[in-house]
């Protein structure tokens, strides 16, 4: 119990302000220590019964706040449930801390109940892994030495997780012997006060581990050659905003997770940068590309970055260098521009961007060989409804690409998406974490600032248990979740498996629908009813636009629900014909 109190106190000293606890017997000392810290307002506590959901909640909290957020669980397979979130955290440099309770390590291999070797369970997917063996120290040993050691281990872990260049998910395994809980909550409170007094001395040591390399230096880039900026997901938004400000004279093809640039180029016509026009008189290919962060969405951009004739330089604030095609010439963390962009190049980029915008809007408005209400229509409606001050969480797969088609990023709207591993898991829980932190940053607001989460039906189903928030737990006060339900995997409609000749076998047996389309018939309304979340259904674009407008006006909240601040809108769209729509957008955007 003493060690658990020390660990929690040191985490708070290291900047932890949010924590997630999953119930369990072996982790009882940690759970009680966090409950006491929450009681005395040293942090905010969130309890979840599912470790996978809880770990993505912690990820969302950490992704928004950039502070370390721990999740606590018992021993055994409970720890393994955190692997997807740890993968995302380390690839996206998000400071997620997994605190796993364990049986004494001497129990390993003995057949003891709920006992596995979990000390290095995350392997390469944790930026640091520590074990706190003092947790099994017998009573009566030197407690002062034990608490100093425990604090130093916590300090090392937090330092690794929050390292600006290579931080990410970190793991602390704590073996706990029997005698797990105090005799009373009064004893717990007294112990927490005593431990806090012991920790009031020197500040936590945060410099145990130097960054993997020194920060990259300043790049000098001559922009008298036609130059295009490609901005993707970033770790530190203030850094990215400063870099994009320095690049302000240049055209920027920005993915939704990037800060909004001054000179945006719409992704709908990005493929034009691979072409020559006017009989070869005008080459639209840039001579150099400046990559900011980590772009992952567009094949046309990947084609450009793979062209060895284009000079590619990267600006990054982490040790992750996006260089899939091995064409990067230089890497820096800041930039100084020299020269002046050719006026003809600037005009061409503006024309390309305008063409991309028109290609999307005209295809959606005029219709064709596709339904009038697709996922692209729905995402465009959601994008049009966003307002200054909103936070937006976007699911993976087709939804994030449709968000790019809709023109995101927008100024005044911070956009979040789990792009580290680009998986669909944990999106509901991530969105709830983002919403809770977004609201906590504006405690004096008359109305809590809004978070809008948008995702596909498979993404929602994958994390539907994320809606399960107990009545004693903090819940978002202004969260809108839009589920674009096309009953299956829309992204495959536009990829190679969606080709006509792969739709069915010669005898008529379904091929595409069975293994790619994967319809489920899942009843989202039932999930909302079970979780106590207001539910609304839109079967047409006009109905969706009306619901989005009413939510903006504060009309959809239901005070009778368990969580009156949470609203889910299901947009029932049709994915059949989506391939034709995507091809029409590309054709209108100048793709032959």
Automatic annotation (TrEMBL):
GO terms for MF: 2-succinyl-5-enolpyruvyl-6-hydroxy-3-cyclohexene-1-carboxylic-acid synthase activity; magnesium ion binding; manganese ion binding; thiamine pyrophosphate binding
GO BP, sorted A to Z: menaquinone biosynthetic process
Residues in Thiamine pyrophosphate enzyme N-terminal TPP-binding domain copies: 3-119
EC number: 2.2.1.9
Catalytic activity, as annotated: isochorismate + 2-oxoglutarate + H(+) = 5-enolpyruvoyl-6-hydroxy-2-succinyl-cyclohex-3-ene-1-carboxylate + CO2
Root EC class: transferase
Pfam families in the record: TPP_enzyme_N
Pathway assigned in UniProt: Quinol/quinone metabolism; 1,4-dihydroxy-2-naphthoate biosynthesis; 1,4-dihydroxy-2-naphthoate from chorismate: step 2/7; Quinol/quinone metabolism; menaquinone biosynthesis
Cofactor note: Binds 1 thiamine pyrophosphate per subunit.
InterPro entries (alphabetical): MenaQ_synth_MenD, THDP-binding, Thiamin_PyroP_enz_TPP-bd_dom
NCBIfam families: menD
Function recorded in the entry: Catalyzes the thiamine diphosphate-dependent decarboxylation of 2-oxoglutarate and the subsequent addition of the resulting succinic semialdehyde-thiamine pyrophosphate anion to isochorismate to yield 2-succinyl-5-enolpyruvyl-6-hydroxy-3-cyclohexene-1-carboxylate (SEPHCHC).
Subunit structure: Homodimer.
Name this protein carries in UniProt: 2-succinyl-5-enolpyruvyl-6-hydroxy-3-cyclohexene-1-carboxylate synthase
Organism: Corynebacterium heidelbergense
């Amino acid at each position: 119990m003493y060690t658990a109190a020390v660990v929690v106190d040191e985490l708070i000293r290291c900047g932890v302000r949010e924590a997630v606890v999953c119930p369990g017997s072996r982790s009882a000392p940690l759970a009680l220590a966090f409950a006491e810290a929450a009681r005395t307002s040293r942090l905010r506590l969130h309890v979840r019964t599912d470790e996978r959901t809880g770990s993505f909640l912690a990820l969302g909290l950490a992704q928004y706040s950039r502070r370390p957020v721990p999740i606590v669980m018992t021993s055994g397979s409970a720890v393994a449930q955190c692997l997807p979130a740890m993968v995302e955290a380390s690839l996206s440099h998000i400071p997620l801390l997994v605190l796993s309770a364990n049986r004494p390590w001497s129990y390993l291999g003995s057949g003891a109940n709920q006992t596995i070797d979990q000390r290095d369970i995350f392997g390469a997917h944790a930026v640091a892994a520590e074990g706190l063996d003092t947790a099994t120290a017998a009573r009566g040993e030197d407690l002062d030495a034990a608490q100093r050691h425990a604090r130093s281990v916590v300090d090392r872990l937090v330092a690794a997780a929050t390292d600006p260049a290579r931080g990410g998910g970190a793991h602390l395994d704590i073996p706990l012997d029997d005698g797990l809980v105090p005799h009373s909550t009064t004893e717990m409170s007294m112990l927490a006060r005593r431990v806090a007094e012991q920790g009031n001395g020197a500040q936590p040591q945060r410099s145990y581990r130097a960054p993997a390399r020194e920060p990259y230096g300043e790049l000098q880039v001559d922009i008298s050659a036609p130059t295009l900026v490609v901005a993707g997901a970033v770790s530190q938004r203030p850094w990215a905003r400063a870099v994009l400000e320095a690049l302000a004279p240049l055209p920027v093809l920005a993915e939704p997770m990037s800060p909004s640039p001054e000179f945006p180029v719409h992704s709908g016509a990005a493929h034009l940068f691979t072409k020559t026009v006017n009989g070869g008189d005008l080459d639209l290919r840039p001579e150099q590309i400046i990559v900011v962060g980590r772009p992952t969405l567009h094949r046309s951009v990947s084609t450009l970055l793979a062209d060895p004739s284009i000079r590619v330089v990267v600006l990054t604030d982490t040790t992750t260098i996006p260089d899939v095609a091995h064409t990067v010439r230089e890497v820096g963390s800041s930039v100084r521009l020299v020269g002046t962009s050719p006026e003809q190049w600037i005009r061409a980029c503006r024309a390309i961007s305008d063409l991309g915008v028109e290609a999307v809007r005209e295809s959606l408005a005029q219709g064709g060989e596709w339904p009038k209400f697709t996922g692209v229509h729905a995402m465009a409606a959601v994008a049009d409804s966003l307002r200054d001050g909103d936070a937006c969480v976007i699911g993976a797969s087709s939804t994030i690409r449709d968000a790019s088609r809709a023109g995101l990023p927008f100024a005044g709207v911070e956009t979040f998406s789990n792009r580290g591993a680009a998986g669909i898991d944990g999106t509901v829980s991530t969105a709830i974490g983002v919403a809770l932190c977004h609201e906590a940053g504006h405690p004096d607001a008359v109305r809590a600032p809004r978070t809008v989460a948008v995702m596909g039906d498979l993404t929602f189903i994958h994390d539907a248990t994320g809606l399960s928030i107990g009545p004693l737990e903090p819940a978002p006060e202004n969260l809108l979740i839009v589920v674009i339900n096309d009953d299956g995997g829309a992204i495959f409609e536009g990829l190679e498996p969606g080709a006509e000749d792969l739709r069915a076998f010669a005898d008529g047996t379904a091929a595409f629908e069975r293994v790619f389309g994967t319809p489920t018939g899942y009843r989202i309304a039932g999930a909302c009813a079970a979780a106590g979340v207001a539910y609304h259904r839109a079967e047409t674009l006009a109905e969706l636009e009306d619901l989005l407008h009413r939510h903006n006006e504060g009309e959809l909240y239901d005070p009778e629900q368990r969580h009156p601040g949470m609203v889910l809108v299901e947009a029932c769209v049709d994915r059949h014909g989506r391939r034709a729509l995507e091809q029409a957008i590309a054709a209108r955007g100048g793709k032959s």
